[in-house]
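Students often ask why we bother predicting the structure of a whole assembly rather than each chain alone. The short answer is interfaces. A chain on its own may look different once its partners are present, and contacts between molecules only exist in the joint model. In this exercise we take two input lines together and write out one structure for the complete complex. Read the inputs first and try to guess which parts will touch.
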Amino acid sequence: MDRLAIIQLGSCGGCQLSLLDLGKDFLDIMEMYSIEHFPMIREGEEFPESDLVLVEGTVRHARHLESLRKVRGRARTLVALGTCAVFGGVQGLANVSGGGRWEESISRARAGESVPLFTRRVLPLDAYVPVDVRLPGCPVPAGLLASFLKGSAEGARPTRESATVCAECPLRGGGEKGGPFRFTERKAESGICFLEQGFLCMGPLTRDGCGALCPGSSGYPCRGCRGPSDGALIFQELDPMVESIRRLSRTASNKDEQVAGYFMDRAHAFFMFCAAEPTFRDRRVGGTSGIVYRLGGE
Amino acid sequence: MATYGLARVFGEAHLRVEVEEGGKPSVGLACEGYRGYGIIGAGCHGEFLPDLLSRRCGVDSLYHRMAACLAMEKALGVEVPESAGRVRELLLACQLFRRHSLTMTLHVLPDLLFPASDPGVRNLVGLFRVDRDVVGRMMALNSWGESVLRNISARAVHPLTPVPGGLTFIPGEEAIDWLRKSIPEMMGLARETSRLVRMLLRRNEDLVGELGIQDGSQMVAETPPFGGSWVGVNIAEFTGERRKIGALDLLERAEKVSLSDTLLEGYRVSGDGYGILTGPLSRINVMGSYGTEMADSELEEIKKIWGFPFRGILLSHALRLAEMIMALEKITGLISEADSWGRGESRNEVPRGSGEGVVALEGAEGLHLLKVKVEEGYVSGTEYVAPLQWNLVGMLDMLEREGQKVGEDTGEARWLSRLEVAVRAYAPCFFCAAG
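Now the answer. The structure tokens for the assembled complex follow.
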């Protein structure tokens, strides 16, 4: 029986809950694996040798980094669980706003308090250690998690290339064009593509696997919680901000600069779940991914 | 100094035990899960605030999302359509059930069932190795809580539908019908579990009479825990004195309590001295009754055994089950009028504007206080106090007193276990409190 460990770094616990929310499937998983470490449901301070380790969250302080390196050394397969672990998640927006409690932690530690030293910047897990499998989602979709764990117990690994949320979305084109609009400031016509109505929707640049839950069945534009698609990561012309502005400009019959000027909150709007992703930083002035990757690895 | 990781709690925390030569240990608490939520919302348009703040906590995400929506609506003077208001009440009732079911299933029942067992066995994984059926039955409450939120708000973790101005959609007939049909079975299971918890608490009477006894103030939002305007706060003393204050006044009077060796901040209310207690025990001490038939019948049983008002923090577990029953009754009442929900709009437009909104939202474990400042539609700042931050002063006091009892029991392992049981009785969420 393979040994499974779940490790919690700086996170909201949502991806651990996704696992617990599997109901009967979770009971099956408890039969398939020997659960060695799972802070939300069982004790165990030390990290055991494990066959499969799911790591939730980001490195936010020195003790997280120490834990992550220990875990990596004792894990056969390390899985980045959830968008925080894979791309930094919404926590990456702290990079945009400043250092948070970084300076406070330093000054209190210097004063003799036993506080952990916080990181100045949020980064995905693979900036620190090699990651074998990435399962993004905020939270990770329960069905994907169950099928991964069941498959993994039999030695299978996910190999599918990513498509985009639009590939799964049932909304159709048409409707009155215009915009750009803010979702809360104007009612949307149901059944019609949000982008075609002039609302920002990250579906064309976000990886699939959620079944287009937000735009497709919940009447809500995609915010990008599964993280950028392979295309958005690889091709500079599909950068989430550049491409979204281009699409909205086409709908609104406006110039790109006019649409760009409409969004004063570009980090939140276009990079809500991936502001920490070094690939995007590298494309912009002041990008630091070269330095970031030198920190990585064991 | 030694640190002990707290397992079976929501979030990341350690007990810190310091012993000076020849003296009794001093017990503190450190929470290290900071992620930067105090700053990440700054500068975003208000449409994104619910998405961002709901990520603060996977367990209580609906409360964070709802608080963000309510604060935006207050700041910009927006009313929500009546049908959306009713569905929001339904969502809050579902979340109350879900949160308590998680606490009881994952954290508390193993402690109450096997208080003397090795901590390595006394948990869901250990129990599963002994009896899969028992764990399956325990998990059924949680599974229903998850299913109901998924059916009504698309997801149990980070639900989607509440937005400033209302909801993205009103649940359809199929979802309501599923809910209506599944409630009787869940009510049976909740009542059965409630009896079990009372029995287990009586078996641990010594702990019930000792842990978390305090004479501080108790605080609850004006309309707990559903409906209403969520602006006022009730504060009650054990002496019987009661008063009401506005949420903005509460925020102005809330004093930060800095703790050593942690960046977590506690709060006390100036003029109230000792500290504040929030959560299921305070709620019923302030309210006196639940206002629904079956929950009040459970309450009478609890009063018969332990008297009223309630003091020992472990009694919160019996009250959590009573609240789960109340939630099921509220859900039943709300869906009985679901036929009229589909007739109106699900949301109103939120105009671009400026203002400040303060919300005191009663969550499962106490008061969430959120202030949002909006300038021309964009969020220029947020302030937030989590339920645990109100409880922290009292909880630390309790840990300090328990710390003195080392050696009176059967060794360090039992002593530490008792400390953990005491902390879990507050059902603390360090995700919410860490920021």
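Check your guess against this: Residues 287-298 of chain A have pLDDT under 50 and may be disordered.
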